[in-house]
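At this stage, I needed to go through a protein sequence along with its fold in token form, as given directly below:
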Amino acid sequence: MRMRRKKNLEERYNACSAMLLEIDIKDRNLNECNKIETKFNCESVFGNNNPIHLEIGCGKGGFVIEMAKRYPDINFIAVEKTKNVIVTAVEYAIEQDVHNIRFINVGAEYLENYFDDSSISRIYLNFSCPYPKKKYSKHRLTHENYLKIYKKILKPYAELHFKTDNTQLFEFSINSLSGFGFSLKNVTFDLHKSDFKNNIVTEYEQRFSDLGFPIYRLEAWLHG
């Protein structure tokens, strides 16, 4: 079901401009965008050179905002391609008075145009859309097409943390990450029954866990 457009969406989005990172790209055609060399200067954005952690598909922002509150010496950037969704996340971050976080309203396929090579210390993928039909597998955020982008922007030995409630997507992701050369660790097929500490349980995660769905999680990293 398509989400109903929020009332006064553009006005609300523009009111959040201080928390949004934007590059003026008039042509969002990916091939044309790839020719643009403009990158974010994260040190200038945050006023420090703390590590940058990136959440791709932040939804309403519950996870990344809690992470930013727990780890003030890390800078967080949350990516969400749906303007109707990201505005809720940004407004929540403002309400929580969190300063070490910024947001980008863009699809993951554009990320290498926004970040320097080897500039990201960690990537989080939480409950990404599973795209269950095989013909749409290239849209999954753990597909090789996206892993190539992550490899480019991640620092050597930086980690990717992945969490989902979808069995098919988890199995696909294990195979995709391993096949691309990622090493896996801390793989769990039932996170809430594991001994993993400091898990941030989002509203979405709690809802599916309460329905009896196991939560799957893994950590992956590439050799330098």
